[in-house]
Structure formats: C-alpha cells, structure tokens
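HUMAN: Can I see a protein plus its fold?

ASSISTANT:
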Amino acid sequence: MLVKHLCSFFFCLSVFVVHAQNSGADLLAKSITYHDPMGNWSTFNGQLDFTVLRPDAPNGERSVLINNKKEKFHFKAQYEEGALEYEVIKGKATTRWNGSENIPKDIAAKYRVTEDRPVMYRNYYTYLYGMPMKLKDPGTHIYPDIEIVNFYGKSCYKMKVTYDPTVGKDTWYFYFNTTNYALEAYQFFKDESKNDGEYILFEGLELFDNIKIPKDRKWYYNKDNKYLATDVLSNR
C-alpha cells in the first residue's frame, strides 16, 4: 500500500520530553473527533483540487476525487503535453492520457506510468487526505506511549505508528496540537538511524463534508531540512 511511498518529518525537535497522560488510542480518538466529528470519512464523496508549488519547476494543477462509499478514486494531473488520469473503481484500474487508454511510450516513461500506478495513487492520496481517520485501518499499530515535545516553539503530542509488513515497512510519527488535538504534522523513516525520509508540515484548514482537512502541506527532507514542495488545497 501507499505507506511505503510516503515521506517523513523529524525536525530538530528541541525536546524536553514529558510523558502525556493520554494513551495513543485516546489521542487518536480525540483527533478524529476534531477532524471528523460526524464520522463522515467512511462515506466521504468529494473532489480535492490542489496546486503543487515547487522551487525549481512550474506549478502543477491536480485534482483527486475520493468516493469511499462507491469505492471510486480518480486522479488528474495537467501537464504541458496533456492530461494524465488514474481511476480505480471497485478495484478495477484504468489509466488515460488525454482521454485515451493508449498511453504513448514516451509519456509512460516520463511520468512512470505502470500497471499498478492507479492503485498506488489511490492509496497515497486517501492516506494523505484521510488522516487521522486512516489510522484506524487494519494493519495499523498505534503505540500506547505518547510524549509531549516542544516542536519549533509548539507544544505537540508525539505518537508513533508502524504497520503490518503487508501494509508498509516505514516508521511514522504524528504530531498533534495539545489543545484541540488537530494533526499538525507527520513524518516517516525507512531507516530511522539514517535520518532518511521526509516530513510534512500543515497550515490552515479546509472543510469538506464537515471534515477538517489541512489546506497547505509543506514537504521537506529529514536529513538536511531541504524544502521540496507545497501542496495548496482549494475548496472550490
């Protein structure tokens, strides 16, 4: 699943660590109540449009349709040469280039189009935009011990998450606001001893079907804090 394709966040946590009184399960439940108070994620049906801002490339326009009730996913990316689409409906995957399922070889090579790409994108984006609700999925291991850490001037709860090997092999950390339990950031490591992976910081919120979804996601490498990109979500 997508977990293995995602990234991590470990800033130089200026850490004075205090053991929090909540357990990991308690913290997750409170965060889900904040982000999805009406329990709408399981039947969520909405289109998420966002712009990818990169320091060394033109801005990219993307849209993601997630219909959990009908098990439908659709992704569209607009490039200079044309539009690339991935669709998964009840497990059946389709790829289209400018509306055609015949993908030119040069386009397939340039954008790494493979047979399993639509499912990978579905897992990736439902994971990203379905947090923290997706942490209730089977195969997810929420560590009971959590900490309060000083994260760049913010006091955050820090929670560790791992997965069954069939789901993902990365180690994840999630950071929550200590007042309202909003998800502030997350990170993953493939090998924590190497400080690899990336971290993602959130700013702002957009409301979709009464679900609070982070508006801006800023991506950085763990190893050197190099800035990679920002995904800016718009509620159109």
In short: DSSP finds three helices and 14 strands in the chain. The first helix runs from residue 24 to 35.
